[in-house]
Amino acid sequence: MKCFSRYLPYIFRPPSAILAASCHAEADIISTVEFNHTGELLATGDKGGRVVIFQREQESKNQPHRRGEYNVYSTFQSHEPEFDYLKSLEIEEKINKIRWLPQQNAAYFLLSTNDKTVKLWKVSERDKRPEGYNLKDEDGRLRDPSMITMLRVPVLRPMDLMVEATPRRVFANAHTYHINSISVNSDYETYMSADDLRINLWNFEITNQSFNIVDIKPANMEELTEVITAAEFHPHHCNTFVYSSSKGTIRLCDMRTSALCDRHAKFFEEPEDPSNRSFFSEIISSISDVKFSHSGRYIMTRDYLTVKVWDLNMENRPIETYQVHDYLRSKLCSLYENDCIFDKFECVWNGSDSVIMTGSYNNFFRMFDRNTKRDVTLEASRENSKPRAILKPRKVCVGGKRRKDEISVDSLDFSKKILHTAWHPSENIIAVAATNNLYIFQDKVN
Protein backbone atom coordinates (compact mmCIF):
# COMPACT_ATOMS: atom_id res chain seq x y z
CA MET A 1 0.00 0.00 0.00
CA LYS A 2 2.99 2.29 -0.41
CA CYS A 3 1.38 4.61 -2.93
CA PHE A 4 -1.73 5.09 -0.82
CA SER A 5 0.04 6.52 2.20
CA ARG A 6 1.11 9.53 0.17
CA TYR A 7 -1.83 11.49 -1.10
CA LEU A 8 -1.74 15.22 -1.66
CA PRO A 9 -4.92 17.09 -0.81
CA TYR A 10 -6.76 19.94 -2.45
CA ILE A 11 -9.81 21.19 -0.59
CA PHE A 12 -12.91 22.73 -2.11
CA ARG A 13 -15.82 24.28 -0.30
CA PRO A 14 -19.05 24.94 -2.19
CA PRO A 15 -19.20 28.58 -3.37
CA SER A 16 -22.18 29.27 -1.15
CA ALA A 17 -20.52 27.70 1.89
CA ILE A 18 -18.01 30.51 2.13
CA LEU A 19 -20.72 33.15 2.34
CA ALA A 20 -23.57 31.19 3.83
CA ALA A 21 -24.82 31.48 7.36
CA SER A 22 -25.39 28.39 9.49
CA CYS A 23 -28.92 28.04 8.10
CA HIS A 24 -27.41 27.15 4.71
CA ALA A 25 -24.94 24.59 6.04
CA GLU A 26 -27.36 21.71 5.47
CA ALA A 27 -27.78 22.60 1.78
CA ASP A 28 -24.00 22.51 1.24
CA ILE A 29 -23.57 18.91 2.39
CA ILE A 30 -22.19 16.90 -0.54
CA SER A 31 -24.45 13.98 -1.44
CA THR A 32 -22.67 12.42 -4.45
CA VAL A 33 -19.27 12.49 -6.19
CA GLU A 34 -18.49 11.17 -9.68
CA PHE A 35 -15.55 11.34 -12.13
CA ASN A 36 -16.35 11.31 -15.84
CA HIS A 37 -14.98 8.53 -18.09
CA THR A 38 -11.66 10.29 -18.76
CA GLY A 39 -11.17 11.67 -15.26
CA GLU A 40 -10.76 15.20 -16.62
CA LEU A 41 -13.99 16.29 -14.95
CA LEU A 42 -15.35 15.64 -11.47
CA ALA A 43 -18.96 16.38 -10.53
CA THR A 44 -20.45 16.77 -7.07
CA GLY A 45 -24.07 17.14 -6.06
CA ASP A 46 -25.31 18.53 -2.77
CA LYS A 47 -28.42 18.65 -0.61
CA GLY A 48 -29.28 22.08 -2.00
CA GLY A 49 -29.85 20.60 -5.49
CA ARG A 50 -26.67 22.11 -6.95
CA VAL A 51 -24.14 20.40 -9.21
CA VAL A 52 -20.56 21.66 -9.15
CA ILE A 53 -18.19 20.42 -11.88
CA PHE A 54 -14.42 20.62 -11.47
CA GLN A 55 -12.00 20.47 -14.40
CA ARG A 56 -8.45 19.18 -14.23
CA GLU A 57 -5.61 21.62 -14.87
CA GLN A 58 -3.75 21.10 -18.12
CA GLU A 59 -0.06 20.33 -17.68
CA SER A 60 2.33 23.18 -18.48
CA LYS A 61 6.08 23.08 -19.03
CA ASN A 62 6.60 25.68 -16.33
CA GLN A 63 4.50 23.92 -13.67
CA PRO A 64 4.27 20.18 -14.42
CA HIS A 65 3.37 19.44 -10.79
CA ARG A 66 0.04 21.30 -11.17
CA ARG A 67 -1.28 18.57 -13.45
CA GLY A 68 -3.38 17.03 -10.71
CA GLU A 69 -5.25 20.11 -9.56
CA TYR A 70 -8.96 20.54 -10.19
CA ASN A 71 -10.65 23.94 -10.45
CA VAL A 72 -14.31 24.89 -10.60
CA TYR A 73 -15.53 24.56 -14.20
CA SER A 74 -19.29 25.02 -13.89
CA THR A 75 -21.94 25.37 -11.19
CA PHE A 76 -25.66 25.07 -11.81
CA GLN A 77 -28.92 24.42 -9.98
CA SER A 78 -30.05 20.98 -11.06
CA HIS A 79 -33.16 20.43 -8.93
CA GLU A 80 -35.52 22.66 -6.96
CA PRO A 81 -37.69 21.69 -3.98
CA GLU A 82 -41.19 20.59 -5.00
CA PHE A 83 -44.44 19.67 -3.31
CA ASP A 84 -46.65 16.71 -4.18
CA TYR A 85 -50.13 18.03 -3.50
CA LEU A 86 -51.81 14.66 -4.03
CA LYS A 87 -49.76 13.03 -1.28
CA SER A 88 -48.99 16.17 0.76
CA LEU A 89 -45.30 15.38 0.54
CA GLU A 90 -42.32 17.66 0.15
CA ILE A 91 -39.85 16.48 -2.51
CA GLU A 92 -36.30 17.41 -1.57
CA GLU A 93 -33.97 19.02 -4.09
CA LYS A 94 -31.05 16.89 -2.81
CA ILE A 95 -29.01 15.26 -5.59
CA ASN A 96 -28.95 11.51 -4.88
CA LYS A 97 -26.76 10.39 -7.79
CA ILE A 98 -24.82 11.74 -10.78
CA ARG A 99 -23.77 9.59 -13.73
CA TRP A 100 -21.72 10.77 -16.72
CA LEU A 101 -22.30 9.69 -20.29
CA PRO A 102 -19.25 8.99 -22.47
CA GLN A 103 -18.23 12.07 -24.42
CA GLN A 104 -19.29 11.94 -28.08
CA ASN A 105 -18.51 15.52 -29.15
CA ALA A 106 -17.29 18.79 -27.66
CA ALA A 107 -20.12 18.86 -25.09
CA TYR A 108 -20.46 16.80 -21.92
CA PHE A 109 -23.64 15.05 -20.78
CA LEU A 110 -24.58 13.86 -17.32
CA LEU A 111 -27.61 12.47 -15.50
CA SER A 112 -28.60 13.82 -12.11
CA THR A 113 -31.48 12.71 -9.92
CA ASN A 114 -33.26 13.65 -6.74
CA ASP A 115 -35.89 11.43 -5.09
CA LYS A 116 -38.36 11.60 -7.99
CA THR A 117 -36.98 13.17 -11.16
CA VAL A 118 -33.98 12.34 -13.37
CA LYS A 119 -32.55 15.08 -15.60
CA LEU A 120 -30.15 14.89 -18.52
CA TRP A 121 -27.83 17.91 -18.61
CA LYS A 122 -25.66 19.20 -21.43
CA VAL A 123 -22.54 21.11 -20.37
CA SER A 124 -20.93 23.01 -23.23
CA GLU A 125 -18.44 25.82 -23.82
CA ARG A 126 -19.11 29.01 -25.78
CA ASP A 127 -16.36 31.44 -26.78
CA LYS A 128 -18.09 33.16 -29.73
CA ARG A 129 -21.34 35.09 -29.99
CA PRO A 130 -23.39 35.96 -33.05
CA GLU A 131 -23.87 39.63 -33.92
CA GLY A 132 -25.71 41.47 -36.69
CA TYR A 133 -29.20 39.95 -36.50
CA ASN A 134 -31.79 41.28 -38.89
CA LEU A 135 -34.92 40.99 -36.73
CA LYS A 136 -33.30 41.71 -33.34
CA ASP A 137 -31.09 44.48 -32.04
CA GLU A 138 -27.87 43.79 -30.09
CA ASP A 139 -29.83 43.64 -26.79
CA GLY A 140 -32.13 40.92 -28.14
CA ARG A 141 -35.21 43.12 -28.55
CA LEU A 142 -37.33 42.65 -31.69
CA ARG A 143 -36.92 45.44 -34.20
CA ASP A 144 -39.74 47.15 -36.04
CA PRO A 145 -39.94 45.35 -39.45
CA SER A 146 -40.74 48.65 -41.18
CA MET A 147 -37.37 50.03 -40.02
CA ILE A 148 -35.38 47.19 -41.61
CA THR A 149 -34.06 48.55 -44.90
CA MET A 150 -31.20 46.18 -45.65
CA LEU A 151 -30.30 42.53 -45.16
CA ARG A 152 -27.35 41.80 -42.90
CA VAL A 153 -25.31 38.59 -42.61
CA PRO A 154 -24.80 37.69 -38.92
CA VAL A 155 -21.17 37.17 -37.89
CA LEU A 156 -19.52 35.37 -34.98
CA ARG A 157 -17.39 37.51 -32.66
CA PRO A 158 -14.93 36.18 -30.03
CA MET A 159 -16.05 36.47 -26.39
CA ASP A 160 -14.88 35.37 -22.96
CA LEU A 161 -15.25 31.61 -22.46
CA MET A 162 -18.63 30.75 -20.98
CA VAL A 163 -19.64 27.30 -19.72
CA GLU A 164 -23.36 26.67 -20.08
CA ALA A 165 -25.41 23.90 -18.48
CA THR A 166 -28.77 23.26 -20.12
CA PRO A 167 -31.36 20.57 -19.30
CA ARG A 168 -31.96 18.43 -22.43
CA ARG A 169 -34.36 15.84 -20.99
CA VAL A 170 -36.51 15.56 -17.86
CA PHE A 171 -37.58 12.03 -16.88
CA ALA A 172 -40.35 12.39 -14.30
CA ASN A 173 -43.50 10.78 -12.86
CA ALA A 174 -42.25 7.18 -12.97
CA HIS A 175 -41.32 6.55 -9.32
CA THR A 176 -43.64 6.28 -6.34
CA TYR A 177 -40.75 5.81 -3.93
CA HIS A 178 -37.37 7.51 -3.57
CA ILE A 179 -34.83 6.95 -6.34
CA ASN A 180 -31.61 5.49 -4.88
CA SER A 181 -29.69 4.56 -8.04
CA ILE A 182 -29.25 5.46 -11.69
CA SER A 183 -27.00 3.51 -14.05
CA VAL A 184 -26.13 4.12 -17.71
CA ASN A 185 -26.22 1.01 -19.89
CA SER A 186 -23.22 0.01 -22.00
CA ASP A 187 -25.33 0.48 -25.16
CA TYR A 188 -25.49 4.22 -24.25
CA GLU A 189 -29.07 4.28 -25.49
CA THR A 190 -30.76 3.33 -22.23
CA TYR A 191 -30.34 3.77 -18.49
CA MET A 192 -32.16 2.52 -15.42
CA SER A 193 -33.44 4.19 -12.29
CA ALA A 194 -34.18 2.25 -9.11
CA ASP A 195 -36.29 3.09 -6.08
CA ASP A 196 -37.16 1.06 -2.99
CA LEU A 197 -39.48 -1.37 -4.79
CA ARG A 198 -39.09 -0.93 -8.54
CA ILE A 199 -36.47 -0.56 -11.27
CA ASN A 200 -37.36 1.26 -14.50
CA LEU A 201 -35.59 1.17 -17.87
CA TRP A 202 -35.50 4.41 -19.88
CA ASN A 203 -34.50 5.34 -23.40
CA PHE A 204 -32.56 8.61 -23.49
CA GLU A 205 -34.80 9.92 -26.29
CA ILE A 206 -38.13 9.13 -24.61
CA THR A 207 -39.11 11.06 -21.49
CA ASN A 208 -42.79 10.16 -21.11
CA GLN A 209 -42.44 6.37 -21.00
CA SER A 210 -40.29 3.85 -19.14
CA PHE A 211 -40.37 0.07 -18.83
CA ASN A 212 -40.70 -1.51 -15.41
CA ILE A 213 -38.08 -4.30 -15.35
CA VAL A 214 -38.16 -5.18 -11.62
CA ASP A 215 -41.13 -4.93 -9.26
CA ILE A 216 -40.87 -6.43 -5.77
CA LYS A 217 -43.88 -4.62 -4.32
CA PRO A 218 -46.14 -7.19 -2.59
CA ALA A 219 -49.92 -7.12 -3.09
CA ASN A 220 -50.24 -6.42 0.63
CA MET A 221 -47.68 -3.89 1.87
CA GLU A 222 -47.85 -5.45 5.34
CA GLU A 223 -46.04 -8.45 3.83
CA LEU A 224 -43.09 -6.29 2.71
CA THR A 225 -39.84 -7.83 3.98
CA GLU A 226 -37.12 -6.17 1.90
CA VAL A 227 -36.41 -3.16 -0.30
CA ILE A 228 -34.04 -2.43 -3.18
CA THR A 229 -31.00 -0.48 -1.97
CA ALA A 230 -28.79 -0.13 -5.09
CA ALA A 231 -28.66 -1.22 -8.74
CA GLU A 232 -26.10 -1.14 -11.54
CA PHE A 233 -25.70 -2.29 -15.14
CA HIS A 234 -22.88 -4.62 -16.17
CA PRO A 235 -20.05 -2.53 -17.70
CA HIS A 236 -19.92 -4.58 -20.94
CA HIS A 237 -23.10 -6.67 -21.31
CA CYS A 238 -26.11 -4.46 -21.96
CA ASN A 239 -28.58 -7.20 -20.98
CA THR A 240 -27.20 -7.80 -17.48
CA PHE A 241 -27.64 -5.84 -14.25
CA VAL A 242 -27.54 -6.41 -10.50
CA TYR A 243 -29.50 -5.02 -7.60
CA SER A 244 -28.98 -5.38 -3.87
CA SER A 245 -31.49 -5.54 -1.05
CA SER A 246 -31.88 -4.60 2.59
CA LYS A 247 -31.62 -8.32 3.43
CA GLY A 248 -27.99 -8.44 2.31
CA THR A 249 -28.70 -10.30 -0.93
CA ILE A 250 -27.66 -9.53 -4.51
CA ARG A 251 -29.63 -10.55 -7.58
CA LEU A 252 -28.14 -10.74 -11.06
CA CYS A 253 -30.78 -10.34 -13.77
CA ASP A 254 -30.75 -11.01 -17.51
CA MET A 255 -33.16 -8.91 -19.58
CA ARG A 256 -33.08 -11.50 -22.38
CA THR A 257 -35.07 -14.01 -20.32
CA SER A 258 -38.23 -11.91 -19.88
CA ALA A 259 -39.48 -8.35 -19.99
CA LEU A 260 -40.05 -8.33 -16.23
CA CYS A 261 -36.92 -9.53 -14.43
CA ASP A 262 -38.63 -10.62 -11.21
CA ARG A 263 -36.90 -13.97 -11.60
CA HIS A 264 -33.18 -13.54 -11.17
CA ALA A 265 -30.50 -15.40 -13.10
CA LYS A 266 -28.17 -15.60 -10.08
CA PHE A 267 -28.65 -15.04 -6.37
CA PHE A 268 -25.71 -14.08 -4.16
CA GLU A 269 -26.04 -14.53 -0.42
CA GLU A 270 -23.67 -15.40 2.39
CA PRO A 271 -25.12 -17.72 5.07
CA GLU A 272 -25.26 -16.02 8.45
CA ASP A 273 -23.24 -17.41 11.34
CA PRO A 274 -25.84 -18.21 14.04
CA SER A 275 -23.30 -17.45 16.76
CA ASN A 276 -23.10 -13.82 15.57
CA ARG A 277 -26.87 -13.35 15.47
CA SER A 278 -28.09 -10.25 17.30
CA PHE A 279 -30.85 -7.63 17.32
CA PHE A 280 -28.82 -5.57 14.84
CA SER A 281 -27.97 -8.39 12.40
CA GLU A 282 -30.60 -7.47 9.80
CA ILE A 283 -29.77 -3.76 9.92
CA ILE A 284 -26.01 -4.14 9.51
CA SER A 285 -26.37 -6.77 6.77
CA SER A 286 -28.34 -4.37 4.55
CA ILE A 287 -26.27 -3.55 1.46
CA SER A 288 -25.83 0.20 0.90
CA ASP A 289 -23.88 0.05 -2.38
CA VAL A 290 -23.12 -2.42 -5.17
CA LYS A 291 -20.51 -1.92 -7.91
CA PHE A 292 -19.32 -4.05 -10.83
CA SER A 293 -15.57 -4.18 -11.29
CA HIS A 294 -14.28 -2.49 -14.45
CA SER A 295 -13.54 -5.96 -15.88
CA GLY A 296 -17.12 -7.07 -15.20
CA ARG A 297 -15.90 -10.26 -13.48
CA TYR A 298 -16.60 -9.21 -9.88
CA ILE A 299 -19.22 -7.43 -7.80
CA MET A 300 -18.34 -5.36 -4.74
CA THR A 301 -20.91 -4.72 -2.02
CA ARG A 302 -20.79 -2.53 1.07
CA ASP A 303 -22.80 -3.23 4.20
CA TYR A 304 -22.47 -1.41 7.51
CA LEU A 305 -19.32 -3.11 8.78
CA THR A 306 -17.71 -4.78 5.76
CA VAL A 307 -16.88 -4.63 2.06
CA LYS A 308 -17.28 -7.89 0.16
CA VAL A 309 -16.08 -8.95 -3.28
CA TRP A 310 -18.12 -11.58 -5.12
CA ASP A 311 -17.13 -13.62 -8.16
CA LEU A 312 -19.96 -13.76 -10.69
CA ASN A 313 -19.38 -17.50 -10.97
CA MET A 314 -19.75 -18.22 -7.24
CA GLU A 315 -23.04 -17.38 -5.57
CA ASN A 316 -22.83 -19.04 -2.14
CA ARG A 317 -20.22 -16.78 -0.51
CA PRO A 318 -17.93 -13.82 -1.28
CA ILE A 319 -14.36 -14.52 -2.30
CA GLU A 320 -13.07 -11.60 -0.21
CA THR A 321 -14.36 -9.88 2.93
CA TYR A 322 -12.75 -6.74 4.36
CA GLN A 323 -13.56 -5.37 7.81
CA VAL A 324 -14.03 -1.61 7.47
CA HIS A 325 -14.54 -0.69 11.13
CA ASP A 326 -15.03 -3.88 13.12
CA TYR A 327 -14.27 -1.92 16.31
CA LEU A 328 -17.80 -0.48 16.05
CA ARG A 329 -19.39 -3.88 16.66
CA SER A 330 -19.48 -3.16 20.39
CA LYS A 331 -21.00 0.29 19.73
CA LEU A 332 -24.02 -0.85 17.71
CA CYS A 333 -26.50 0.01 20.47
CA SER A 334 -25.47 3.68 20.67
CA LEU A 335 -25.15 3.84 16.85
CA TYR A 336 -28.73 2.61 16.65
CA GLU A 337 -29.91 5.26 19.09
CA ASN A 338 -28.30 8.11 17.15
CA ASP A 339 -29.42 6.63 13.76
CA CYS A 340 -25.84 6.28 12.49
CA ILE A 341 -26.43 2.55 11.98
CA PHE A 342 -28.63 3.51 9.00
CA ASP A 343 -25.85 5.47 7.25
CA LYS A 344 -25.35 4.40 3.63
CA PHE A 345 -21.65 4.16 2.80
CA GLU A 346 -20.52 3.82 -0.82
CA CYS A 347 -17.53 1.88 -2.18
CA VAL A 348 -15.36 2.27 -5.29
CA TRP A 349 -12.74 0.35 -7.29
CA ASN A 350 -9.50 1.82 -8.55
CA GLY A 351 -8.91 1.76 -12.31
CA SER A 352 -7.28 -1.68 -12.32
CA ASP A 353 -9.70 -3.31 -9.82
CA SER A 354 -6.74 -4.07 -7.53
CA VAL A 355 -7.65 -1.68 -4.70
CA ILE A 356 -11.00 -0.78 -3.19
CA MET A 357 -11.94 2.25 -1.12
CA THR A 358 -14.81 3.10 1.21
CA GLY A 359 -15.58 5.59 3.96
CA SER A 360 -15.98 5.49 7.71
CA TYR A 361 -16.49 7.85 10.65
CA ASN A 362 -14.26 10.60 12.05
CA ASN A 363 -13.56 11.60 8.41
CA PHE A 364 -11.62 8.33 7.98
CA PHE A 365 -11.58 6.43 4.72
CA ARG A 366 -10.23 2.94 4.16
CA MET A 367 -8.27 1.33 1.32
CA PHE A 368 -7.76 -2.39 0.80
CA ASP A 369 -5.17 -3.83 -1.58
CA ARG A 370 -6.62 -7.05 -3.02
CA ASN A 371 -3.21 -8.42 -4.03
CA THR A 372 -1.15 -7.84 -0.88
CA LYS A 373 -4.16 -7.95 1.51
CA ARG A 374 -2.77 -4.84 3.18
CA ASP A 375 -5.05 -2.01 4.22
CA VAL A 376 -4.67 1.57 5.38
CA THR A 377 -6.84 4.13 7.19
CA LEU A 378 -6.43 7.76 6.11
CA GLU A 379 -8.08 10.92 7.38
CA ALA A 380 -9.55 13.80 5.39
CA SER A 381 -9.43 16.90 7.58
CA ARG A 382 -8.55 20.55 7.20
CA GLU A 383 -5.97 20.32 9.98
CA ASN A 384 -3.68 17.79 8.29
CA SER A 385 -4.29 18.74 4.67
CA LYS A 386 -2.00 21.61 3.84
CA PRO A 387 -1.13 21.61 0.12
CA ARG A 388 1.41 18.93 -0.76
CA ALA A 389 1.28 17.44 2.75
CA ILE A 390 1.67 13.69 3.14
CA LEU A 391 -1.25 11.86 4.71
CA LYS A 392 -0.25 9.65 7.62
CA PRO A 393 -2.02 6.36 8.25
CA ARG A 394 -4.37 6.44 11.26
CA LYS A 395 -5.14 3.64 13.70
CA VAL A 396 -8.07 3.16 16.04
CA CYS A 397 -7.40 1.69 19.48
CA VAL A 398 -10.04 -0.59 21.00
CA GLY A 399 -8.41 -1.51 24.29
CA GLY A 400 -7.76 0.70 27.30
CA LYS A 401 -4.13 1.42 26.54
CA ARG A 402 -3.37 3.35 23.38
CA ARG A 403 -0.22 4.52 21.69
CA LYS A 404 0.64 8.11 20.92
CA ASP A 405 -0.44 8.00 17.25
CA GLU A 406 -3.65 6.04 17.88
CA ILE A 407 -7.16 7.35 18.45
CA SER A 408 -9.54 5.71 20.92
CA VAL A 409 -12.78 4.27 19.57
CA ASP A 410 -14.59 6.31 22.23
CA SER A 411 -13.11 9.53 20.78
CA LEU A 412 -14.46 9.01 17.26
CA ASP A 413 -16.71 11.77 15.94
CA PHE A 414 -19.75 10.10 14.37
CA SER A 415 -21.04 13.38 12.95
CA LYS A 416 -18.00 13.43 10.64
CA LYS A 417 -18.62 10.67 8.13
CA ILE A 418 -17.36 9.93 4.63
CA LEU A 419 -20.24 8.37 2.71
CA HIS A 420 -19.29 9.37 -0.84
CA THR A 421 -15.98 8.72 -2.61
CA ALA A 422 -14.77 8.47 -6.23
CA TRP A 423 -11.63 7.15 -7.91
CA HIS A 424 -10.11 8.48 -11.13
CA PRO A 425 -10.70 5.86 -13.87
CA SER A 426 -7.01 5.45 -14.74
CA GLU A 427 -4.82 7.28 -12.20
CA ASN A 428 -4.28 7.31 -8.44
CA ILE A 429 -6.43 10.36 -7.83
CA ILE A 430 -9.34 10.12 -5.42
CA ALA A 431 -12.15 12.44 -4.38
CA VAL A 432 -13.55 12.24 -0.85
CA ALA A 433 -16.65 14.10 0.33
CA ALA A 434 -16.52 14.97 4.03
CA THR A 435 -19.81 16.70 4.91
CA ASN A 436 -19.58 20.03 3.01
CA ASN A 437 -15.90 19.76 2.03
CA LEU A 438 -14.52 17.99 -1.03
CA TYR A 439 -10.97 16.64 -0.71
CA ILE A 440 -8.99 15.57 -3.75
CA PHE A 441 -5.88 13.50 -3.06
CA GLN A 442 -3.30 12.28 -5.53
CA ASP A 443 -0.13 10.22 -5.54
CA LYS A 444 2.95 11.96 -4.27
CA VAL A 445 4.46 14.08 -7.03
CA ASN A 446 8.25 14.27 -6.98
TrEMBL record:
It comes from the Eukaryota. One of its GO terms (cellular component) is protein phosphatase type 2A complex. InterPro entries: PP2A_PR55, PP2A_PR55_CS, WD40/YVTN_repeat-like_dom_sf, WD40_repeat_dom_sf, WD40_rpt. One of its GO terms (molecular function) is protein phosphatase regulator activity. Keywords: Repeat, WD repeat. Belongs to the phosphatase 2A regulatory subunit B family. This is Serine/threonine-protein phosphatase 2A 55 kDa regulatory subunit B. It comes from Accipiter nisus.
